[in-house]
Here is the input.
Amino acid sequence: MRKRVHIQDLQLGMYIVKLDGSWLKHPFWKSAFLLDKAEDLKTIKQSAITHVWIDTTKGKDIETAATITIAPSTTTTTATTTKNTKSSLTDELEAARETLALAKQATIEMFNDARMGNSISLDETGPLVDEISQSVARNPAAMLSLTRMKNKDDYTYLHSVAVCALMISLGKQLGYKGDMHALGMAGLLHDVGKMAIPDEVLNKPGKLTDEEFILIQSHPLRGWEILKESYGVDDIALDVCLHHHERVDGRGYPDRISGNELSLVARMGAVCDVYDAITSDRCYKKGWEPADALKKMAEWKDGHFDEAVFNAFVKTVGIYPTGTLVKLKSGRLGVVTEQSEKTLLKPKIKIFFSSSSNAPIPKKIIDLTRSQETIDSIEEPETWGFDRQHIMNLLIEA
Ligand SMILES: [Fe+2]
Ligand SMILES: [Fe+2]
Here is the structure.
């Protein structure tokens, strides 16, 4: 099997079949070879290459998840999460951006097949789900911050990638014992049924008529029908696709099932789906800031979400998720750059602006666990004249 591997995960004994990127950047004249020399490994890691393709039938496979925080799989399926080293947000953003671009493209192609009424193939997206899983293991905030940058045209595709990444992160938090790859794939596929809904209804800026509303609500079943006909789609993906709009009080759709009748994966899908949907800008409304979205979801939680799953989700993204703009007690504005392992209420903040003088200040990272500072409020970037790209740039800068 061919797999695309980040160079951070490259090891001696792997058989390289392709080096990504321009050949001008390649340190070798050959591109397919067994990586058995330490100096070759070092040369690749020092080069401009970020990813290589390996053939696991000819050399070592990427290491499996046994040594990281998730519980080992009890199924016979291949564990696809890897023993990744942690990356800084800045480092991971670069790798995540590349993976996201490939995943988005592969998802567009896969969903286009569904739109044409064809069954879909997981050949292209399968390896990318593994890459998303690896990126999430190295630093979950990178992929989750990038998938927020959606526009109305790529919403459905990036939402699918975001739910894929969220399902994997949440699975780790919950100590999910099943197949993590299947969990990610279920997230990626959950809204495939939207391809059966006309664009003018799906992206209608105004209020929907009753008929249009019913049409949109048919997407879980339409998706389930598409997936049922497609090769290699497992029960987890079918379940999440059909039941991600169910609620624990039985007031969701399409089957109005409730409580324990809803599988764990369906309950996970519901939380990940709503969080990403309400934090994204849509044609009819602006997305909420992640921290505000979590507050709202906490208010809705009874009846809507499974409490244990929701609580684990909050731990996954943090009460102040990375990328949140906050005002500190001192009046300084900053962006959350990293969660604290000790408390969700005291993340690391990169300060950059004074609200009292309404002017930039020297950028500095403050660790709230070691500071007298506290978070005063969550701020809308637009209120202060910043857009999401500006916030993203603050995260990217070392
Ligand atoms: Fe949906
Ligand atoms: Fe969705």
